[in-house]
Specification:
By secondary structure, this protein is of the alpha+beta class. The chain is 18% helix and 36% strand.
Length: 174
């Protein structure tokens, strides 16, 4: 299969020799002589070489054309991740789960301890670079969160028998 860009159209030579062109309006047009069309549009085209002599393609062929100087497409929307919040009436504290698996585990294992409140907010991993550390308080069953590496290190050094570092819970924007 051979493809080339004409002014406003992509010309494709199919294995059977037929040429179709998709215009910017979305319409398709048939052209009787593929080689003549290509030669007229590009005099340097000789009809020989790897593209012209390749065996017929089978299946679907996707062709991507980049037009230099054109306005680039807008970037894809940012991917955001929901942060799920729970409340414990026993301790009067909140717990945050950074993914659906942990949310579902908490709902299934501790429904009498943690009441699911829904999505508290979302974070964007592409723009969030500040780690949020989560500790489990083994004395009272609550959690402690800090975005400070210095504070996290202080908690680890000062209360190793009380606060257990669970790791980076998720990343915050700065």
């Amino acid at each position: 299969m051979v493809a080339m860009l004409l002014v406003g159209a992509l010309t494709v030579l199919s294995p059977g020799g037929a040429v179709t062109a998709s215009l910017s309006s979305g319409a398709s047009v048939g052209v009787t002589s593929a080689i003549e069309t290509m030669a007229a549009a590009a005099p340097e085209f000789t009809g020989v070489g790897p593209a012209a002599s390749a065996p017929p393609a089978q299946g679907t062929v996707t062709v991507t054309v980049t037009v230099v100087g054109a306005t680039p497409p807008p970037p894809p929307p940012p991917t955001v991740i929901p942060i799920y919040r729970f409340y414990s009436p026993k301790s009067g504290t909140h717990f945050y789960a950074p993914n659906a698996d942990e949310r579902d585990t908490v709902i299934a294992r501790w429904p009498e301890v943690w009441h699911y409140e829904g999505i508290a907010y979302t974070v964007n991993p592409a723009r969030n670079t500040q780690p949020l550390y989560r500790f489990y308080n083994m004395a009272n069953g609550s959690h402690f969160y800090t975005a400070s590496a210095e504070e996290a290190n202080h908690v680890i050094a000062t209360w190793p028998d009380i606060c257990q570092l669970e790791g980076v819970c998720f990343w915050l924007g700065q």
